[in-house]
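Researcher: Quick one. two chains, 594 residues in total.
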Amino acid sequence: MAVKKFAIACYDDEAPLFDAVHKVRHSGYKLHDVYTPFPVHGLDQAMGLKETDLHVAGFIFGITGTSTALGFMSWIFTSDWPINYGGKPFFSLPAMIPITFELTVMFAAVGMVLTYCYLNQIMPGVKKHVFHPRQSDDLFVVVIEVTEGTDEAELMNFLNSTNPVETNVQIAEEGWWYGRFDKEEEYQKQLA
Amino acid sequence: MTDRFEVPSGLKKTGLVLSLIGIITLIAGAVCFLGKHEETGLVRFWMGLMQNGIFFLFMAISSIFIQAAAGLAQGGWIVAYKRVPEAIGANVWVFGLLVLIILFSMIFGLGDHNPIYHWVNPHGDKVLEGKSTFLNKGMFIGFSVAAVGLWSFFGRKFRSMSIAQESAPKNSTKLYWKTVSLAGAFMVVYGLTMMSTTPWMWIMSIDAHWYSTLFSWHVFAGAFVSGMALILLWTVYLKNQGNLVLVNKEHIHDLGKFMFAFSIFWTYTWFAQYMLIWYGNIPEETTYYNKRQNGPYSFLFYLNIVVNFVGPILILMSRPSKRNYFTVVFMAMIIIFGQWLNLYLLTYPGPSGHNWNISWYEMGIFAGFAGVMILTVSKTLTKSDLIPHNHIFLKESVVHLS
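Model:
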């Protein structure tokens, strides 16, 4: 992960937020992310995010669970430790179905949670930069990456023209890293 | 904006031709099977009528059930195509009447040794005599008439109240709340008939020695899937005719989800019943599956699982396929065929034994009932505006995202 320079603009309502997101996308600035205190309907379409592939991952995890369960059980019951249960054949598919189902669900669920955490770069015990302390309280925060080709003064002028309540420029780590929130000061020192 | 549906001459012709095929098949069947006084022909004649009749009746009742379920849950998503389940539900009495005629003929017209319903005269069979407090002619007639009567009443009532809402004052919720309470009443009726007694009486009692407490649930699951498929076919048909302008991919997606989810639910009930009997391995229970899984029905037995489970789960799993008109219509047809096959396997193996056929007679009778369905439902659809303008959830249904 990389330390980068970001410009943020904070809004106090959904309406100016949508306006700002539309303008940012039209202007061609690199929209890094938008942080909101609650899920805002239609924001993902406004930001131009493509639909998540999380469910494809879920399918793959599920199929892995199915084949693990079926493969493991048929190996145990036919070659590793065959036991005669009530005269049933060693390979009894109906008896394996419930466990196969459970394992499919478990693989899909656990795998999707982990994939979700990775895609969003969040996890318990993992640190991620907070652009504004009020972004989970009452402010809608638009984060724009200041790339090499971005004229910073022009960007700030542009952001100030979208009626924000606050704007600033930050240098921050974009991804996640091991750490705790009480280590925030050390992190700021390292960046400086 | 009015949205009136006029029956196109092509649809009317199709309906008439299909009904005619049904009547001709019925006459031909009567000549071929009833004349020779052979039990196999007699069984085939009545089973063909009964299985198809019950299939179409159960499929139509699902339309009342979905209205009641959406009504109780205060679901707005169904309102855009509400007239379709209403029109199907209002015609339940037609199929109910046909099924009652068929069933009562089978109870009274097949003589002393009833080849299909053995319990009519137990002839000293201890097991059947033990069940005779529930399985006797009086109870059969009482439960059947009450069930069909109540379904017909609720099917017509839901439609008439929905149409009365159109002339009610704007934003009036009086009729709406009346519909909600009637939906609750219907759920009780549905629970006591379709989800329990009716499949016991009509279908499970064909194999009168065998019983399963899960049986009615399983039949309901199948009926619900095929009912959703039927609503979807009508909705897409009306949309292709330029009607139902408010229906969009979100609503089709909803119906696709129902077909997908309840196909899996059907498999769940199927497997729950199968696995317990397989595990327990008690002879009086396993005869039922032995007859179906081994021997002449073996191919149909496995085909049933492929068509009703493997197909829907693989094809309808992804979001784009549930939003694609071609895929959902194709799957709706597959599911209707699959559930018809499932009902075939529930009814035929008991009385027919090794002599099974899916041939001109079974398909002809199916065509006849399909013709009746097309004629009655399309006629009902023409009688009112297809958009419930005055329904309080109309806007919610239009802006609905699946």
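Chain B has a mean pLDDT of 91.
Researcher: Thanks, that's what I needed.
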